[in-house]
Specification:
- The structure is a single chain.
- This protein has three domains: 43 residues, Arc Repressor Mutant, subunit A (Orthogonal Bundle); 47 residues; 50 residues.
- 74% of the residues lie in helices and 0% in strands.
- It contains nine helices and no strands.
- α7 crosses α9.
Length: 155
């Protein structure tokens, strides 16, 4: 007996969260009928089991409170996942209000961790690599420069 899209979607959601777009894509990749996929997604939305706003809040909380990403990077990643702009903005605001997110501390921690893995290379090479590393994570240029200047003067 063939599995239904709804049952497969429940199995996926029991393992981890999905956005509406990503869950729909997963179901289509499994070659479920388009009408069955739409019905499954609508049923999950109605039951509250699929919620882009809730997904965005958890994603933002995880990325920002651990210092793994910047607000800009989180915003871009959620947009790629298909989360609407208002859900992204709301999630970022609520997490920043609920929990302290110290961007300067996050950048400094990332710089120190990266410096520990760089070994004894030239100062300018370290500076360039650190700058690129932090820029790819979406941190602001002023914050990057401040952190690099503060952390490289000791070394």
């Amino acid at each position: 007996m063939a599995r239904k899209a709804y049952e497969y979607a429940l199995d996926l959601l029991s393992a981890r969260g999905y956005t509406v777009r990503n869950l729909r894509r997963k179901l289509v990749q499994k070659e479920f009928d388009a009408d069955e996929v739409s019905a499954a997604v609508e049923r999950l939305l109605a039951a509250g089991l699929l919620d882009d706003g809730r997904y965005a809040r958890e994603y933002v909380r995880q990325k920002l409170t651990t210092g793994r990403s910047s607000v800009r990077r989180v915003r871009l990643e959620l947009a790629k996942k298909g989360v609407a702009g208002e859900d992204i903005n709301s999630a970022i605001e609520s997490v920043m209000d609920e929990e302290p997110v110290d961007i300067a501390r996050s950048i400094d921690a990332a710089v120190k961790k990266k410096l520990a893995s760089m070994g004894s290379i030239e100062l300018e090479v370290k500076r360039r690599r650190l700058f690129g590393f932090l820029a790819r994570r979406g941190f602001e240029i002023e914050d990057i420069r401040r952190s690099i200047d503060e952390n490289l003067t000791d070394r």
